[in-house]
Specification:
Elements (H helix, E strand, L loop, with lengths): L6 E6 L7 H14 L4 E6 L1 H4 L6 H18 L7 E4 L5 H10 L4 H5 L2 H7 L8 H16 L4 E3 L5 H17 L1 H6 L11 E3 L34 H10 L18 H13 L4 H8 L4 H27 L2 H30 L4
Parallel strand pairs: 1-2, 2-3, 4-5
Bound molecules: adenosine monophosphate and tryptophan.
Length: 344
């Protein structure tokens, strides 16, 4: 078996309104992983344009996600923070992988079906092939672990299938060019903990999302303490007291969601949180959740504000990150070209 260097890769789209789901499902884990792993964190601007974006808004969002990465505590000197469009090899590898992946595989992607809706003939081809670009992002760095929310699980499985098919299809050439049995590692999704799928505060059956028209459905990174408090106090609940056992959350999506948020924010299990609040009223629990959410999120919001006022610093971080990302990407892309049989 080929041994691969352990490397973490993940990405967030610069499409506005970073929210608690992004934080608990992904970004908070990025911070943890930097203690033990070499990490590459990307602002995936090529993905953003799969749906229409205003250039000015896109520019601001790229800087905002960068500021969020730094504000949560990712160290841009020890790890790599960069935006995807600045490393040309992402698009280049995506082309090669377009020729490895099968149409049938893409046709199974549920997120495409959701995003395209009834307008399937009219969405961009980019939206359709987006999971292949995502596979290219990961494989370009030969990443071994990918922290993401539950909604990205299927895309990660596709990335593994693509890596495996490339390794098989080009097996002989991989060996002949001195890369052993396999060129790409099969990236492992890291989807764990009590908040891998944070739900809307207005409807516990819908995912918390950037694109929900109701701002009360989500807690944004940029919300101040009063806004966070209001949103939690107005969050939908049911009339029953909180259960003491986890089984009691079964048919209660709103209760399950709020308990999951609390647990993730405090790094506890849901069962443990129910030990504290089980049998009590939502109002008491909500007060505690407001205090916890404000304590965790307000420092991030104020640090983001400070960073966003200094776009020269943000741009320096991105330029430095892109230069370091490019080094890894360029070496791997040269190897891919060689394996595939391109002359140069
Ligand atoms: P996106 O904003 O779509 O680029 O997502 C960035 C990261 O946040 C991905 O890893 C998603 O899986 C994760 N994410 C987005 N929404 C949620 C949610 N409601 N709950 C948990 N994770 C989420
Ligand atoms: N598709 C991911 C999302 O919408 C973002 C993403 C793009 C990504 N490339 C990636 C996540 C590579 C992890 C690894 O959330």
């Amino acid at each position: 078996m080929t041994q691969f260097v352990q490397r973490v890769f993940s990405g967030v789209q610069p499409t506005g309104n970073l929210h608690l789901g992004n934080y608990l499902g992904a970004i908070a884990k990025f911070v943890e992983l930097q203690k033990t792993h070499e990490c590459v964190y990307c602002i995936v601007d090529l993905h953003a344009i799969t749906v229409p974006q205003k250039p000015e808004t896109l520019r601001a969002s790229i800087r905002e996600v960068t500021a969020a990465y730094i504000a949560v505590g990712i160290d841009p000197k020890k790890h790599i923070i960069f935006n995807q469009s600045q490393v040309a090899e992402h698009a280049e590898l995506a082309w090669v992988l377009n020729c490895v992946a099968r149409v049938g595989w893409l046709n199974r992607m549920t997120q495409f079906k959701e995003k395209a809706g009834k307008d399937r003939e009219n969405v961009s081809i980019g939206l359709y092939v987006y999971p292949i670009l995502m596979a290219a992002d990961i494989l370009l760095y030969k990443a071994t672990q990918v922290p993401v929310g539950e909604d990205q699980k299927q895309h990660l499985e596709l990335a593994r299938d693509i890596a495996q098919k490339f390794n098989l299809d080009y097996g002989e050439s991989i060996a002949a060019t001195g890369h052993g049995e396999a060129f790409f590692p099969l990236p492992e999704p890291l989807i764990q903990g009590p908040a891998t799928r944070v739900m809307s505060l207005r409807d516990g059956t819908k995912k918390m999302s950037k694109s929900d028209p109701s701002d009360y459905s989500r807690i944004n990174f940029t919300d101040d303490a009063d806004t966070i408090a209001q949103k939690i106090r107005k969050a939908k609940t049911d009339p029953e007291p909180l259960p003491s056992e986890i089984e009691g959350l079964g048919n209660r999506p709103e209760a399950d969601n709020l308990i999951g948020i609390y647990a993730a924010l405090e790094n506890r299990s849901k069962a443990d949180v129910l030990q504290t609040f089980g049998g009590g009223q939502f109002s008491t629990f909500k007060n505690a959740l407001v205090d916890l959410a404000v304590a965790k999120l307000e420092p991030i919001a104020s640090e983001m504000k400070r960073l966003c006022a200094d776009s020269a610093y943000i741009d320096d971080v991105l330029a430095d990150g892109a230069a370091r990302a490019r080094e890894i990407a360029a070496a791997n892309m040269i190897a891919v070209k060689n394996i595939v049989g391109f002359v140069g």
